[in-house]
Amino acid sequence: MGSKVVAGITTSVDGYYAGPDDGPGRGLGIGGERLHYWVFGGPWTYEGQRDAGDATGEDREFLEHWVDANGAVICGRGTYDAAGAWGGRNPWPVPLFVLTHRVEEQPAADTGFVFVADLGTAVRRAREAAGDKGVFIMGGGGVITEALAAGLLDELVVSVSPVILGRGKRLFDGFDRDVDLRKLQVWSSPLATHVRYAVRGG
Question: Whole-angstrom Cα distance, residue 186 to residue 99?
Answer without folding.
Answer: 29
